[in-house]
Amino acid sequence: MYFFRKYKERMIVILIAIILLVVIGYTSVERVNLTGPERFIGNLLSPISKVTVSAKHKVTGLFSYVGSIFSAMEENESMKDQIIRLEIEKRELENIIGRSDFLRNEQNLLDVSDKNLLRAKIIGKEPGNWYDNFIIDKGSKDGINKGDTIIQGIEVQNQLYVEALIGRVIDVGDNWAKVVSIIDEWNSVSFKIIRTQDGGVISGSIDSKLEGYLFDYSADVISGDQLYTSGLGGVYLNDIYIGEVDEVITSQEELSKSITVKPAINFKKLYNVFVIVE
Amino acid sequence: MTNLMIGLTITFNIIFQITILPDLRVFGIVPNTSLVIVVILALLKGRIYGGITGIIIGFIQDILFSTVIGVNAFIYFFVGYFTGFAKDSFARENIVNPIIFSVLATVFYNLLYSLFMFFLSMDITIIQAVRSIISLEIISNAIVAAIIYKLLQKIFSQPKIRFTRNR
């Protein structure tokens, strides 16, 4: 008994370490559902996070307002001149604004798409520098399932709107869901080149770039080719736009053709996304 | 009272870190305030508090964002526990302490994290690992540590000699 009393604290520390390692090992394999405590913490935190995000937008606006006061005096004079000029321009522009909408991209996507889309808002981004995951404000109550695809509408050419791939849902809570983006290390996407129908696999990397390789060494691929998902493997739906080929690297020794991809989405400026609900 | 304040600190930190902080990137680097808070609480309250705070913050962060549960909890626990040994070794007013310990903790965190990633069969090269260990995050964490230490010092440090009745 003396032994136990003497080394009590060390034994507790080692015990905790072992328990944590077991948890890591247990959760590193693919799981089916969220456990009870996880669900509880997520449910508790996501509404708070939601409020803070909208408060943040207001606070940021306030700061930029305060900062601009100092330069306001000198600007005032030149502004008065400009107002007259702008008044004329405004009349012309109003004509254009009347036709184009604030949410034109989203609306056009809804028109074009035949899938069942659900609008969701990003309420938190992962704090660390290692990964690019985020959480959204819709969960199993809204019909979201694990593995659902996350997209956003973008304009590729004049008046041509497509669904662009962002990521997929990896865990679902009651009113929140964890999304892993395609520029993340954990994620690999099977793609095809729309021009030649050549296939391959891309995955994110630690430094947030999309890199991949083609199945066929002799495949004809040039910088600027457009990539769509191929649907192989059943992880993502097929025919969703990923991005353009940025660079083609041919390696003679390894008999492989690897590419780097410029994603269509700007992942630093994501606020609203769509979930494809099946 | 202390427990309540620690709880509030953790909650506020988590909310601040996942909502506001990711938008305040400097050179693409976010300071890891969780790590810094674990280090500072361990310095102020000792190894037991440090370890427990580390586990709680780590688990919350893992559950919210990570696919694998427990990696952050494991690292934060040991950071808190080992830093706590230095509780009474240095002068409280010295601001150099938390800075040095948070620099050490940052290196330790990234080292252990890349090790975990390696053993969880992530595709990580030695260059990427070294680059993430010796990064700007060290500097940004050191700056944040100085600020947070000033904030938390008043809340958590009690004078050793009291002239009034113990509450």
Name the shape of chain B in a single word.
globular
> Which protein chains make the most extensive interface, counting residues with beta carbons within 8 Å of the other chain's beta carbons?
A-B, 41 and 44 residues
Q: How would a textbook summarize the main sheet of chain B? A: none
Fraction in helix of chain A: 25-40%
Indicate the mean pLDDT of chain B: 81
How much of the polypeptide of chain B forms β-strand, as a percent range? Answer: under 5%
**SS strand fraction of chain A:** 25-35%
Counting DSSP H or I runs of 4 or more residues, the number of helices of chain A is 4
Return residue spans of chain B where pLDDT drops below 50 for at least 5 consecutive residues: none
Structural class of chain B: mainly alpha
Largest sheet: number of strands, sense, barrel closure of chain A: 6 strands, antiparallel, barrel
Distance between the termini of chain B: 11 Å
Cα shape of chain A = globular
Structural summary, described in words:
The complex is a heterodimer of chains A (278) and B (167). Chain A is an alpha+beta fold and 278 residues long. Helices cover 36% and strands 31% of the residues of chain A. Chain A is built from four helices and twelve strands; from the N terminus they run ααααββββββββββββ. Chain A has helices at residues 2-6, 8-28, 36-99, 104-112; strands at 117-125, 133-136, 149-157, 160-172, 177-181, 188-193, 199-204, 210-214, 226-229, 241-251, 256-263, 272-276. In chain A, the strands form two sheets. A six-stranded antiparallel barrel of chain A has the order 1-2-5-4-3-12. In chain A, strands 6-7-8-11-10-9 form a six-stranded antiparallel barrel. In chain A, a hairpin with a 4-residue loop joins strand 10 and strand 11. The longest helix of chain A is centred in the N-terminal third of the chain and has 64 residues, at 36-99. Chain A is globular. The mean pLDDT of chain A is 77. With 167 residues, chain B is mainly α. Chain B is 69% helix and 0% strand. Chain B is built from seven helices and no strands. Chain B has helices at 2-19, 33-45, 47-65, 71-84, 96-119, 126-133, 137-156. In chain B, helix 1 (2-19) packs antiparallel against helix 2 and helix 4 runs antiparallel to helix 5. The longest helix of chain B is centred in the middle third of the chain and has 24 residues, at 96-119. In chain B, 44% of the residues are buried. The A-B interface holds A 13, 16-17, 20-21, 23-24, 27-28, 37-38, 41-42, 45, 48-49, 52-53, 56, 60, 123-131, 133, 135, 170-171, 178, 180, 185-186, 203, 205-207 and B 14-15, 17-23, 28-30, 32-34, 51, 55, 60-61, 63-71, 73-74, 77-78, 81, 113, 116-117, 120, 122-124, 128, 132, 135, 137.
